[in-house]
Amino acid sequence: MIRTLDRLTPTLSRGVTLLGVMVLIGLLPWISGRDPAMSILRARMGEQNPTPEALDAIREQLGLALGPIQHLKDWVAGLFQGDLGTSWISGTAVLPIMIEALSVSLVLMAAAFTVTVIVAVLLCWPTMRRGLKGRDTRTSGTLAASLTAMPEFMLSALSLVVFSVWLGWFPPYGWGGVAHVVLPAFALGLPGGGLLGRLVANAIAATFHERWIATWAVAGFSRYQIAWAVLRRSLPALMPQIGMIIVAMTGGAIAVELVFSIPGIGRAVLGAASSQDLPSLQAGILILLLAALTVGVVVNLIRVALLGRALGMGALPVPDLSKPAPDRRLWLVPCAVVLILLTLIALGLPRDPFTPQYMRLQPPSLALPLGADGLGRDVLARIAHGAVSTIGMALIVTLISLVIGLGMGLMPRLAIGLTEVTKATPPTIAALIVVAAMGPSAIGAVIAVSAVAWAPLAAHTAALVSEARAQPHVRIAPILGVSPLRLIPRSILPEVWGPVLRHAMLRLPGNALALAALGFLGLGSPPPSPDWGLILADALPYVERAPLAVVVPAASLALMSVLGVSLSSLSRR
Amino acid sequence: MRSIPLCALLVGLTLAGSVQAEDPRISVAMLQPPRSGLSPLSDDAFKLSRWSTAETLIRLNQDGEPQPFLATEWSRLDDHSWRFVVRPGVKFHDGTDLTSERVAAALTAATEAVPKPRILDGINMTVEVDGDAVIVRTQAVDPLVPNRLSSPQLAILAEKAYGENGVVTPTGAGTGPFVLTEINGVTSAHLDRFDDYWGERAKLSGIDADYVGDGTARGAALRTGTAHVVEAVPVSQAALVDPALIHEVPMPRTNTLYVNTNEGPLADPALRTAVREAIDRATIVRTVYEGRADEAHGLFGPALPWADPLRKPIDQVAAKAPEGTRITLGTYSDRAELPEVAVLVAHALTAAGFDVKQDVREYANIEADMLAGNFDLFILSRATVLDSGDPVSYMVSDFGCEGSFNISQLCDPAVDAALATAAGVEPGPARREAIIAAEAAILASGAAVPLLHERVIQGEAAGVSGADRDPRERTLITEHTTLAE
């Protein structure tokens, strides 16, 4: 009985979480504090006056007076008949519309994932070669970390300008032909490639420290065979990450969809959420979550298949704990980055970030090293003044999500549903719930982003924990009388801590951008505060006329990421 | 010498081509995707009229005066009723005939829609058939009925367009020179020429419209030649485009700083004057709009050219020093320029001695707080003449004591009296004077500081001619539009 329950835990976990989120979404119009009738009116007609007569008519038409419980009941009843209801805005059935949006998103995802894989392979290549030659496999990961820090909205706008306007290679917008897919896939796939490439490189590097490599080399296996085996050994722990990258590219491609006018599901769900079109939102979220859970299950099956019998037998190899001699060159990167950032801040801090005292988009000069922004404010001053708050807030979010992620990852079977569902929930939806609960505030953004940012870390932790538990010395521990409570800090955490910390640092700039992106709800730093995400978004429309105002904040974000990753690499076992 | 016959041959071919079905199709980049599947009972109505596919009984000329369209003539029967004669010989795109019964049914469907089209707010309209004409009755005395019937939301569509639950599908159901053949969700729409059009046959053989929400992408559409006509090129992109391809159209739209007259420190009229005097319009227009906007002298800008000559100087109470009074300034980010305007306004007010806190969100997330009067100042871009070509309903909703969009929380008997007077006057010079008198009363109250009037920048590729540059954004591609490849 208990065994059955244990086996069913992941399924139960997924089901309960799915149910919980759907109920929460169903309640959103009632708890949001925003009158749904007003939102619907706005969605249909932008300039119409919200007369009580018009609002009452809408409430009556949609049955809003019946309340959330009745609405949820009707929704569930409809669900069992395959009917997800009709849109509150257009009055047409929502399911076909959402399915069509999903099919568009799946095509985009497939193309973007191809880009991701290509980038990741290129990034892992050096590590693999060094490992096969028996050299130290540690790298600072500068390039990968920089790619990960590139925001999709910036890559979209940049690639549109460069490849469409300047070079004329691809159409600037639209959806239908192969040519339409290239630029969005590039913008969406590049940061994911950086992330995946870094994670795989880390995992490969760790595998090369396992003793069997030397045995195999002595036994005369070819480099090709060893490389294949190293990949097979390294990838299982990363399968959940690959799954999450796929999920994020399906529902989370909102920025790319907006720039290139792609009718994907991310845009559809965001539109439904902001206009409080509940049936569309419910259908969209349900589809996204089901897709995420499916991907999660498939990915887990692949992981178990790759690890094979070793996982069940408790025979996974253990890395060689002998520390390689510290390599001083690895200190070069973080020191150089700190120096650059400090110089930037020292130059900018004495300057005035708020007064519009220069010409609009004034070009750079000695007196104004980075030029002025669209309002005639000093770009250098704004970047310097925004550094502390941007880095600080992102660091707080990253640490919170690291703690939650580790905690959740240590009980993988129980938390799996929550983890998968959370990753599929767009940060926007989390932010809407936060706004509904506590109104607009700066701290609300931290809560909203932390509430979703832990999921990839938890998945990574869970995968590493299950491998750690399958190692012989951990398997034997309970028999030797080590209690489970002591086992975690002594044998499991040390195995897991390093890779997950490096992973968390890799996501630092993403968190900074996510914080800035919630400004539309009134969450996060209000204007005119010089948050890097806000500076970047403000400067983007002028990228061709004042490129430095885009390049420098983007480069600063990249430096922040490089710094985090290279510092955490130094702490490697 | 051999080139001359060749040229003649080419010219001949071109001429022949233009007569046959070789006419070009035009590609249009639209600003917004449809809100509700191109139903004319939503804002999507404006798309249908911009593509010349759906038509109304009346249309407005440049001065906002009613002209015949699907109605050939009209007359006022009494205070509450009007008679419109339906144009004979008009066919819908599905081959059925336009009759007075169809007109009455279409208008009645609009009156029963949820929510009702904004043009019908507060007038309770009913329609009945009278031979080859329809009789339109309103509960209130309303001198503007013909103007109202020009609203694209009151387009007359064929019977097949009206489905269950109030869903209206305009595919192949209009009367205009172009037939809507394909609605492709929020991506695109396609139209073909309608050969049985009652008016002049269209010069173009069709329209391909894409919805391009991103401003950079719309600029790119023009620069790469992906689209021939581009709606609303953003100011940030305009400087990058060949000046010959862009055309600025003054819009009946005013960016106004609404001042909370009821709660908070600005309930003090002397501080309201201090706010008004601190604003530097020239800097905002020059910096944020790169000169592509007009400084405001009143609530109505160059799109209503009759307004300025009627204005007289306005007396306001003397200003008081703010001495660090804390005020909140709200605006929304949906219009890219507004947050920038807010920064400049906040800076000017800080320089004048206020302590300003800004709050910028997306419109959907700030509207409720705005209407509840939770901000001391709010910057809003507002259409002043909406659909009827007449600004009184805008003034009533924004500044009337009972107004449903009264951001300033204004309740001033002098303003209400002036508005009531203006609403009752027949269209014409007398109404215009009453409107300007009401505007003066509003400005004297200090409830609104008009900042500037926007211009919409329309992009047209070389070779496009006859595309309408309509300040009301009702027309764009018409039967007269041509495209030389």
Summarize the structure.
The complex is a heterodimer of chains A (573) and B (485). Chain A is mostly helical and 573 residues long. Chain A is 72% helix and 0% strand.
Entry keywords:
heterodimer, A: 573 residues, 25 helices, 0% strand, globular, B: 485 residues, alpha+beta, four-stranded antiparallel β-sheet, 14 helices, disordered N terminus
State the helicity of chain B in percent bands.
Answer: 25-40%
Radius of gyration of chain A: 25 Å
**Looking at the chains present, what oligomeric state does this protein adopt?**
heterodimer
Radius of gyration of chain B: 24 Å
What does this protein structure show overall?
- The complex is a heterodimer of chains A (573) and B (485).
- Chain A has 573 residues and is an all-alpha fold.
- Chain A has 25 helices and no strands.
- In chain A, helix 5 runs antiparallel to helix 11 and helix 11 runs antiparallel to helix 20.
- The longest helix of chain A has 39 residues.
- Chain B is of the alpha+beta class and 485 residues long.
- In chain B, strands 1, 8, 9, 10, 11, 12, 13, 14, 15, 16 and 17 form an 11-stranded mixed sheet that branches. A 4-stranded antiparallel sheet of chain B has the order 4-5-7-6, covered by helices on one side.
- In chain B, 53% of the residues are buried.
- The N terminus of chain B is likely disordered.
- The interface between A and B is large, with 73 and 74 residues.
